[in-house]
Amino acid sequence: MARAATHSRLSRRRSWWAALVIFAAAVTVVAGSAGVSPALAQLLVFPPRPKPPVRPERSQEQMLVRAEEINYDYTNERVSAVGNVQLYYGNSTLEADRVIYDQKTKRLHAEGNVQLTEGDGTVTHGEIMDLSDDYRDGFVDSLRLDAPEQTRFAAPRAERTGNYTVFHNGVYTACEPCVQDPTKPPKWQVKAARIIHDQGEKMLYFEDAQLEFVGVPLAYLPYMSAPDPTVKRKTGFLTPNYSSSSVYGFGVTIPYYWALAPDYDFTFAPMITSKQGPLLQGEWRQRLLDGAYSIRATGIFQLDRDLLVNTPGDRNFRGSLDTAGQFNISDKWVWGWNGTVLSDKNYLYDYGLIRNLQIPTNLLNVSVDYALSQVYLAGRGDRSYFDARALYFYGLSPVDNQSQLPVVHPVVDHDYVFNSPIFGGELSFHNNLTSISRETANFDAISQAAVNGALCAQTADPALINSNNCLLRGVPGNYTRASTEWNWKHTIIDSWGQMFIPFFSVRADFADMNISNQPGVSNFINAGQSDVGRVMPVAGLEYRYPLINVQSWGTQTVEPIAQLIFRPNETMVGSFPNEDAQSLIFDDSNLFKVNKFSGWDRVEGGGRANAGVQYTAQFNQGGNVNVLFGQSYQLYGLNSFTLGGTTNTGLDSGLDSRQSDYVARASYQPNSLLTFTSRFRFAENDFTLQRTELETTANFGRWTTMVMYGNYAAQPLIGFLERREGILGSARFKINPNWVLLGAAGYDIHHKSVTQTQVGVGYIDDCLILALNYITSYAYSGSVTVNHSYMMQLTLRTLGGTTSTQTAGVPVVNPGVFGGTH
């Protein structure tokens, strides 16, 4: 002890540069003669004794020490670094008030504000650390560990042996501590008697655990496990999901995920139900060099069919198979597919498996949901586009008759714009090929008598299936049409600023048909085998003259617009089936379109003039006003919009008179936060409103709102027997950066009934997502029913999430708008 005391008295304060020099010199002796780990030998060493030096290996990394004081105890073979100790080795740093290295036990003892920063960014805090000389094994008292993935561990004591770290009475969270009060409990944390971190398997195991939210225990789990935060893909159980339904009772889904290889995996997700037994689900996913694909299958042998009597689900086995994929051929071309096979149309709804519910865009109509199977090839160039796909629609609505839905085989679109000017203008062409087949004719009633008496059904008297009662929405048999359209236009601006845009186009259509002679079909179109063709040349001139006036308050522009179109009459109306041009809404968006039909099966004919004026005011203080008013005129020939064809498209449109209805648009945007838009159609003879749409969107402060009002006159000739009037509104309120409230509602003013509602609340931050939603929607199920859905989502970062859904359907006594033809 005398010698130790002597050396202790020789201890003195050193600068950290001096410490580095002494330690580097001492390493060569101790590493070679004392048998100490090179790591610790280079870290804490004794002054050299009179022994032959041993040259260190070149592969050994230098360890550096910084401390206020260093003490040596030769008797006990210990060396101490005291005061702001910092030890550097490789990518790791150890900081403490005092560090003692025991050469005999090869242990490193650090105490007082200990912090170990490892190369991967993990930071471990503690009052006492006792580690092996390679940092691999040891224990920590009063531990707090901050991982680079923004996760945190805490424990009174932790031990590490090899790849295992055990936290006794540990706490784990992925939430940031409160900035104002770090002692407050995090938003969520898991407390466990033991938390075991297996760094080899990259797994966390929790024993005798409880989940707490803001310090309040909400769930107890005797055992749970989760991948550690560094893992992106890990084999194991995923968080269960819960649901309930009148069809299957209470259900719990327990997914198991297999990370089979870096490029493919598999998920098995059985759903155990209280009324129908287990429903099995499995999904395979694989990523290849040029794309990816997936295959998913589900199935159940139902235990209680009595709950599904007189529905498509009244069967023993129900299931589905779907697949999707997309692959790159080059940087411009892709091909892919998606396909679905179902046991029955109600299966996905009954068991809550439908993934993408289609939300109706028109608040006054019911959406018709379907499963789409297709294979496609698509390419895009700098001035061209190509898309070819074959389509199969499987109707999910109970009102769908599968034999009335078309099979598309295929539809091809090809567009090209020539790079170089042709005769000073732009030349482009558009090609389309459509081939479809349908087993059974699809008729739609257009009179109240036809609705009440089901006169348009296939079983009705064929004589009653006529244009006074019905429309032929879908033609039975085979129909193939090839179309091409070439367009040229040139813009000329004179010295006065007037714009003259001459344009020419020619379009040709050829169709091959084999129409089934089913009851009533011949009242609309010739049945049997036939070939038809037509050609439509067009010449025209568009004139625009923007008159600009600059004032002290801003700029205003008045722009008269006129269009003259010269072409022959439309031919073969009713000889071509109308499959893709049934929708026609005359408004500001198509006032100046040369062909106002929406698809290829109809083409507008006859001479026509379109005229209007547009006014725009741009204010210096921000904001703008835009107004458009116009009308269309039939100059000569047959008015295509009085020739309804098989679907009456064009009738009741506002274009089916020599002078069309007036259309108008008015919008006001005072700033980027507020927008008012309105669209109108006025009757030409008495200026009564035929169509009104008012829409307002606002983003101010924490509020985001949208209100839309629609009022549409009855159009019995195309199937809308009553006036439709309704309002749809939605609002979103951001309580703070994390909390948000939202709501939406649709109201049918004409029938005084609510069409849909949604109320929800959500929370999101760096470690937690919580959402609660209540939704009502209407659906057909023989009779109209209203579905009440309650949905909850909870996601904890790094641990996963769970969802809970409850759906109940209630028959509607007065379906209101849903009872009419749509």
Can you describe this structure?
This protein is mainly beta. The strands form 3 sheets. It has a 27-stranded mixed barrel. Strands 1, 2, 3, 4, 5, 6, 7, 8, 9, 10, 11 and 12 form a 12-stranded antiparallel β-sheet that branches. A hairpin with a 3-residue loop joins strand 43 and strand 44. The chain is elongated. The termini are far apart.
Keywords:
single chain, 822 residues, mainly beta, 27-stranded mixed barrel, 12-stranded antiparallel sheet, 5 helices, 46 strands, 55% strand, disordered N terminus, disordered C terminus
Total number of helices:
5
Largest sheet: 27 strands, mixed, barrel
> What class would the helix/strand composition place it in?
mainly beta
- Net shape: elongated
Total DSSP E strands: 46
**Helicity, in percent?**
under 10%
Beta-strand share of residues:
over 45%
Q: What's the gyration radius in Å?
A: 38 Å
Please state the average pLDDT score: 84
Query: What is the CA-CA span between the terminal residues?
Result: 102 Å
List segments where confidence is low: pLDDT < 50 over at least 5 consecutive residues.
1-59, 356-368, 811-822
